[in-house]
Design goal:
The protein is built from four helices and 27 strands. A three-stranded antiparallel beta sheet has the order 1-3-2, with no helix packed on it. Helix content is 7%, strand content 35%. It is mainly β. The termini are far apart. The protein folds into five domains: 99 residues, no CATH class; 38 residues, Laminin, CATH 2.10.25.10; 39 residues, Laminin, CATH 2.10.25; 42 residues, Ribbon (Laminin); 67 residues, Laminin (Ribbon), CATH 2.10.25. Strand 10 and strand 11 form a beta hairpin.
């Protein structure tokens, strides 16, 4: 394929000469055709191919073409070659030995169209046109960046290609690029949320939120030790950390839910409710969170076990009286 520069340069050289250079190997003119030029025989001579290289010099004498009765056909003109008048095909035509026929510059690759352009043969010439996706005059074609005009749907990414473009759905969407639908990652199971987090679908994405009692970014959630971070339980309650939560348990001697916002922990009167373990011969005294046992008079022990005191050992009776020990006391008999 000839470049536009080569075609133009040859035309300029030919037109710059004092005479006219005729060469059967001249390339085509841009868009206007060109190609091999052949001579048709004239002046009664049979048709003959000539090298068609001749220089017509200025002369005051009549040229052979002015004196001959040679009649050239369509697309041909008279030219002097080696002192003779001959018919020469115009640019874009060649001789088949009888007449001048059109040269198909496109089929013979004698055009100057751009590589991506469409070459269309015309009578005596050719034309170049850029294909869809390119702009230019056909001799030069530049790719059109269709992505600049936002041809894809809002949730798709446009990629410019040579002479074309492609639409692909953005991350978080599915479809053909012209229609993109949100993917619910929470439903498809493609979300990477922690097992201790809630998945929330959003357009084109999703978010993860840790459950109460956990801290983190939702993808990673760590249990919060509520017992170590404060005093969530009531006074007189024991705090126990649990996975994602905590529990409060009232200490022995107290009853309630252990929560400051609830019933809290209240003292239990073990004596009144019969929850004490005092001995039969002991008295129960309630205390905050507990109780105490004290042996009754006439008994000795720790309160949970009370033994009768034998007062008669100490001879408490008067002379002549007999001491009789009894539970918690004694009597003197005459």
């Amino acid at each position: 394929m000839l470049s536009r520069t080569s075609v133009s340069l040859l035309a300029l050289i030919a037109s710059a000469c004092a005479g006219e250079l005729i060469d059967q190997t001249d390339p085509p003119n841009e868009g206007g055709g060109g190609g091999p030029e052949f001579a048709l025989g004239g002046g009664g001579e049979s048709a003959e191919h000539h090298p068609l290289v001749a220089l017509r010099l200025p002369s005051s004498e009549p040229s052979p073409c002015e004196e001959t009765e040679l009649e050239c056909g369509v697309h041909a003109s008279c030219a002097e070659v080696d002192g003779e008048a001959v018919c020469v095909c115009a640019g874009g035509y060649s001789s088949d030995g009888v007449a001048c026929v059109d040269v198909d510059e496109c089929a013979l690759d004698l055009h100057a169209c751009a590589d991506v352009a469409q070459c269309s043969n015309t009578d005596g010439g050719y034309s170049c046109s850029c294909p869809e996706g390119f702009s230019g005059d056909g001799y030069e074609c530049s790719d059109v960046d269709e992505c600049l005009s936002d041809p894809c749907e809002p949730n798709a990414v446009c990629t410019n290609l040579e002479g074309d473009f492609a639409c692909d759905c953005a991350a978080g969407y599915e479809g053909d690029g012209q229609t993109c639908t949100n993917i619910d990652e929470c439903q498809t199971g493609s979300a990477n949320c922690s097992v201790h987090a809630t998945c929330i679908d959003t357009p084109g994405s999703f978010t993860c939120v840790c459950f109460g009692g956990f801290s983190g970014n939702g993808v990673s959630c760590t249990d919060i030790n509520e017992c170590a971070s404060g005093a969530p339980c009531s006074a007189n309650a024991l705090c126990s950390n649990e996975v994602g939560s905590f529990s409060c348990q009232c200490l022995p001697g107290f009853a309630g839910d252990g929560l400051p916002s609830g019933s809290g922990c209240n003292d239990v009167d073990e004596c009144a409710e019969g929850l004490d373990n005092c001995a039969l011969h002991a008295s129960c005294v309630n205390t905050v969170g507990s109780f105490t046992c004290s042996c009754d008079a006439g008994f000795i022990g720790n309160g949970t076990e009370c033994l009768d005191i034998d007062e008669c050992i100490e001879a408490p009776c008067a002379s002549g009286e007999t001491c009789v020990n009894g539970p918690g006391g004694f009597t003197c008999a005459p």
